[in-house]
Write a structure and sequence with these properties.
The protein is of the alpha/beta class and 421 residues long. The chain has two domains: 29-134, Sandwich (Immunoglobulin-like); 185-420, Aminopeptidase (3-Layer(aba) Sandwich), CATH 3.40.630. Helices cover 32% and strands 25% of the residues. It has a six-stranded mixed β-sheet with strand order 5-1-2-9-8-16. The radius of gyration is 24 Å and the shape is globular.
Length: 421
């Protein structure tokens, strides 16, 4: 009897081992539809699935965008939109494979793109536009992909009063905001870690508003709120400085590298000779010929050890050397997502009309040497009295920090991406 039971157990185990791989290969979803919509200068591709849309695994190859579809069966024609493609999209192909089915979108000329997995609609949406034609290309996808938003608590924009003493940081009673996007289970287990860098500090005040509010103080406030917002989403976060102390630009990335951070986010406040200029812009490391960006970089780079406006060639050399190794694609995508998310949340949550100045490349010394994707967020303009008052408001800071944290969570979850070809 014992031998018979042993033989039966072996047989069951053998059958189970044979069946398991078959079950593992059963597609979790089926790609069932594809359509194209024209939205001004932008083309929007919608890919529908019978089950949950697969996690985004996107890569670019020359003039092509590849969307890998793990464990997905393709039930649409190989050229599902044949005859409907118009510039900048030249073709859309659906390729069935036993190991890695994919969608391949080929574009004509230089183009920007934004892509999202919309969980509630079992859909992947890809937006493509000729470079520069749609400066806020990611915003509509950001809005669709975020949790349902409450109606703004006011019928007209909030009037913010600048705090007399902006230094204390209070995280109590945050403004009503959309439900946060939290990490999925896989990413929580991965233990993602963000190093937040409040710009300037100590004897380096940064820029200053007409009311006497200093950049170093607001940067620390916003960074502190961002740390809390990330932790609320299940993401570990630390600050390069938690008090009013000076830290050299080179030391800031050394801190992030030593800690093994997955992302580096530096928080700054902008300034412009034109006091009417307002808005949010996010930078990633690279050379540029844009005069406004070069001026801003010189201002932000002023605290670098041994670095001043006379040594631009040194930084350019470093950037050239790093270009092949730096996480430029990831940083560019994150920068675009932060820009679009912050503007969308501030507009919907506070009834404002914030300028989305976009994601840009720039020679910022604080980003040099980071071993991880790194971005610099210019949260607004201290040179504009109205925006400076907003930036000093706990309400504004809460929504701004929450939106930045949501963009980071989307980045780690792999359900949003943006970039260019």
């Amino acid at each position: 009897m014992t031998r018979k039971l042993t033989a039966l157990a072996v047989a069951i185990a053998t059958i189970g081992a044979m069946v398991a791989p078959v079950r593992a290969n059963v597609p979790a979803s089926v790609l069932t539809s594809a359509k194209i919509e024209h939205r001004g200068p932008t083309l929007e591709l919608h890919f529908g699935f019978s089950g949950p849309a697969p996690r985004l695994d996107l890569s670019t190859h020359g003039s092509e965008i590849w969307i890998a579809l793990g464990h997905t069966r393709i039930a649409i024609p190989p050229r599902p939109l044949f005859g409907s493609e118009t510039a900048p999209i030249s073709s859309v192909r659906a390729i069935q494979s036993d190991t890695n089915s994919r969608i391949v979108v080929e574009v004509i000329g230089k183009s920007d793109y934004a892509i999202a997995r919309l969980r509630d609609r079992n859909e992947i949406v890809l937006r493509v536009a000729t470079t520069g034609a749609d400066p806020n290309i990611a915003a509509p996808i950001i809005v669709h992909n975020s949790p349902r938003r409450p109606a703004p608590s006011v019928a007209r924009p909030v009037v913010f009063a600048a705090a007399e003493n902006p230094r204390p940081v209070s995280l109590a009673q945050p403004v009503a905001a959309p439900a946060p996007v939290v990490l999925n289970e896989d990413n929580r287990q991965a233990g993602h870690f963000v190093m937040i860098d409040p710009g300037h500090g100590g004897y380096d005040p940064g820029t200053e508003s007409s009311a006497g509010v200093m950049e170093k103080d607001l940067a620390l406030q916003i960074a502190t709120r961002l740390k809390a917002a990330l932790e609320a989403r299940g993401i570990r976060a630390e600050l390069t400085r938690s008090t009013d102390v000076f830290i050299s630009l080179a030391e800031r990335t050394r801190i992030a590298n030593s800690a093994g951070a997955d992302l580096f986010v530096s928080i700054h406040i902008n300034s412009s000779p034109n006091t009417d200029t307002t808005g949010i812009e996010v930078y990633y490391l690279n050379n540029t010929t844009d005069r406004a960006t070069i001026r801003l970089a010189r201002m932000e780079n002023g605290g670098a050890d041994g670095y001043g406006t006379s040594n631009d060639s040194n930084l350019n050399y470093i950037l050239t050397d790093l270009r092949q190794n730096y996480k430029a694609i990831e940083a560019s995508s994150l920068a675009r997502m932060i820009d679009a998310q912050t503007v969308a949340d501030l507009d919907s949550g506070l009834g404002l009309n914030v300028n989305a100045l976009g994601a840009k490349m720039g020679p910022f010394y604080v980003l040099v040497g980071a071993h991880m994707p790194a971005v610099l967020v210019e949260c607004g303009f201290m040179s504009n009295a109205t925006e400076a008052a907003r930036l000093a408001s706990p309400q504004y800071q809460d929504v701004l920090a929450g939106a930045t944290a949501t963009a980071v969570a989307h980045y780690f979850n792999g359900d949003l991406a943006a970039g260019d070809l």
